[in-house]
Amino acid sequence: MEAGFPEALKRAIRALALLPGLGEKSATRLALYLISHPERAEELSRALGELPRIKLCRECGNFTEEDLCSLCQDPQRDPTVLCVVEDPAALAVIESAGVFRGRYHVLHGLLSPRDGLGPEELRLPELLSRIKQNGIREVLLGLSPTAAGEATSAYILELLKDYPVRVTRLACGLALGMEVRYADPLTLKRALTYREVLR
User: 10 Å Cβ neighbour count for 159?
Assistant: First the structure.
């Protein structure tokens, strides 16, 4: 598909095709769009050039440009409640709900032996250190209800059994607007197990 294109364009297409979810056709379409809109190409180039400044917050593991991320620096947040999440994307989604006012701990993965992710690859020692040193009273497991998420939650629960902390998890079950008759058995099991008390 690159035949007849200048070398610079071919290199751009190959570089874009390395991104997850982009094949050669999508990469070609994006590269051609950027050529047609040079101002967007320049803006994208500047933004990508700034990415190397991003690092991990020394406290929670979220992305930041400083030593501590803005959430860890916020004095209005409850430092005794810690929400454990898989990655910064999950943190951003929970944060966008605007309800959680504690702090976060980013694992940067879930237990998955198939993918070579064991306890050593996750930020579990840092989690234990924060619980010991920072007077954490509640750990909220904000992990996805997938097989890897459940395995990670169970592992963390076992790790914390001797710590004087309350361990909670995100409620799960039927999605708002979902009809009960279309729910799968696992979703219904969770909805029944973690049912909400109304009075």
Answer: 16
